[in-house]
Specification:
This protein is of the alpha/beta class. The chain contains eight helices and seven strands. It binds 1,4-dihydronicotinamide adenine dinucleotide.
Length: about 250
């Protein structure tokens, strides 16, 4: 399905981003693993290249820096020849109740989760507009749909990701670039590993499909939106949450 295509996934040295990279590589896609942790990115890229027999490179990129995202898009073209798929996946949390939340924690979470997507779309589309082809997938969250106590910064940023997805879908459709978003529910990764067990059990109990989601569940949805099967789909916000927030 993805033979000779090239995908960039931000924040993909581990977790959901890595699962997305693996699911694309499994179908022949060449991969750029990028992360603020450059060493981790290189290691993951080497492992993916060895496991799936595709080309994979690791690039250090802090998504909050515009020039680093531009360099990331250029690295895909210079080292792998093209750029077809871009997944804005990098994310960070700094949870606290709104009343106590510091300005620094507000700014960091907004900057990584929302400004990072803005810079990512700009960097990717600069290349994709010339090719008149592109698939952009943004990772939002159910928190962006229904809010999340203790995550005012994160939920607001993820709601912003939904709005920028719909806006970019409208702006780039005439260039044959689709822009969609996936909203994961609760997925066990390093990001969620510190949450109290009681909270995790409660969330699973309240989810219509009573199980924990896996990074691979998100990866399969992203792979669909990045594929030619989704050529007529843009501006969609796809929940992958076991039915956690049905109706939204
Ligand atoms: P994770 O913490 O395991 O992975 C996030 C990756 O992003 C890490 O490798 C980290 O180094 C990287 N990163 C952090 N700041 C960065 C920056 N400024 N520039 C570049 N890379 C940076 O988290 P996970 O769970 O894999 O999350 C992936 C995405 O999925 C995030 O956008 C997250 O908000 C979203 N998500 C996760 C959910 C979950 O339950 N795990 C639920 C809903 C959304």
């Amino acid at each position: 399905m993805f033979k000779d295509r090239v995908a960039v996934i931000t924040g993909s040295q581990r977790g959901i981003g890595r699962a997305i990279a693996e699911s694309l590589a499994e179908q022949g896609c060449n991969i750029v693993i990028s992360d603020i942790n450059g060493e981790g990115a290189q290691k993951t890229a080497d492992e993916i290249a060895a496991k799936y027999g595709v080309k994979a490179i690791g690039v250090s990129c802090n998504v909050t820096k515009k020039e680093e995202q531009t360099a990331l898009a250029n690295a895909a073209v210079e080292k792998l020849g093209r750029l077809d798929i871009w997944v804005n996946n990098a994310g960070a949390i700094r949870d606290d109740l709104l009343m106590r939340m510091s300005e620094a924690d507000w700014d960091l979470v907004q900057t990584v989760n929302l400004k990072g997507v803005f810079f990512g779309i700009q960097a990717a589309t600069k290349v994709m507009m010339k090719a008149k082809y592109g698939k952009i997938v943004n990772i939002s969250s159910v928190a962006g749909l229904v809010g999340s106590a203790g995550q005012a910064n994160y939920a607001s940023a993820k709601a912003g990701v939904i709005a920028i997805t719909k806006t970019a879908a409208r702006e780039y459709a005439s260039r044959n670039i689709t822009v969609n978003a996936v909203c994961p529910g609760f997925i066990l990764t390093d990001m969620t590993s510190n949450l109290p067990d009681k909270w995790k059990e409660e969330v699973i109990k309240q989810t219509p499909l009573p199980k924990r989601g896996e990074p691979a569940d998100i990866a399969k949805a992203v792979r669909f939106l990045a594929s030619s099967d989704a050529d007529f789909i843009t501006g969609v916000i796809l929940r992958v949450d076991g039915g956690m927030v049905i109706g939204l």
